[in-house]
């Protein structure tokens, strides 16, 4: 996980951010991904199971 987060933080472009491999390419945000990666790297992540 740490290796993946480091790769995101060091990235300069979003791979596959074009309409051929991804029809939702306009929603890709490198800045947003870096913000999330930094937050998870700094604070960790908590996954809660929702029981209905």
From TrEMBL:
<dbReference type="GO" id="GO:0009372">
    <property type="term" value="P:quorum sensing"/>
</dbReference>
<dbReference type="GO" id="GO:0005506">
    <property type="term" value="F:iron ion binding"/>
</dbReference>
<dbReference type="InterPro" id="IPR037005">
    <property type="entry name" value="LuxS_sf"/>
</dbReference>
<dbReference type="GO" id="GO:0043768">
    <property type="term" value="F:S-ribosylhomocysteine lyase activity"/>
</dbReference>
<protein>
    <submittedName>
        <fullName>Uncharacterized protein</fullName>
    </submittedName>
</protein>
<dbReference type="InterPro" id="IPR011249">
    <property type="entry name" value="Metalloenz_LuxS/M16"/>
</dbReference>
């Amino acid at each position: 996980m740490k290796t993946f987060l480091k790769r995101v933080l060091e990235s300069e472009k979003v791979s596959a951010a074009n309409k051929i491999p991804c029809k939702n390419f306009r929603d890709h945000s490198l800045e947003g991904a870096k913000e999330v990666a930094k937050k998870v790297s700094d604070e960790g992540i908590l996954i809660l199971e929702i029981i209905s």
